[in-house]
Design a protein that fits this description.
The protein has about 190 residues and is of the alpha+beta class. It contains 5 helices and 5 strands. The chain has a domain of about 110 residues.
Amino acid sequence: MADKRAQREQKKREKQKKRREAKQRARKELNRDARGTLQSAMKWPVGTCYLSQNWHEQGAHCHAAFVRTHASGRSAVVLCEVDLARRGIVDCKVDILGSEEHVGALMVQYSEQHALLESSAEQVVRVLLDAEAHGRTTGHTPPRAFGKARALFDGVDPEEAEFDVLVGSEAKADDGEKKGWFSKLFGG
């Protein structure tokens, strides 16, 4: 009787080991596919991109979404939180989504949280790269995921963006003194 119990336990351990190995193989394949997909996504056409409605304000805290979409519907999506006043790129997520419906649902959800407006890919890339550069000048490094995001920007020229990006906080008065409304009206 003890012999049968030992055999059942041994069989159970073998099944658990096979399941564990199958899960590990699946995880390895998924990681390998994700890396390959991200590299191939650099060549996909640019999809619809978005910026927060306040991105054009001096030193704005805004959000950006950059999308590349394959003909099959798979999409590479970059979602960034941006601080144009000081820190630059605050948060960045890069993801591969399986269908255009997933991207649409994600953009609706993200837009409800951050009031996004459709924007050109060049403008989105310019905001992100200017924010990154400004953040570095103030001693802040972007999140590691932004390196993957930069790779997806390949082929998009930020110099073709229609508008300039206003980084930093608002400019101080020239002589450093606070001026009241009287001096502004009468130049005193």
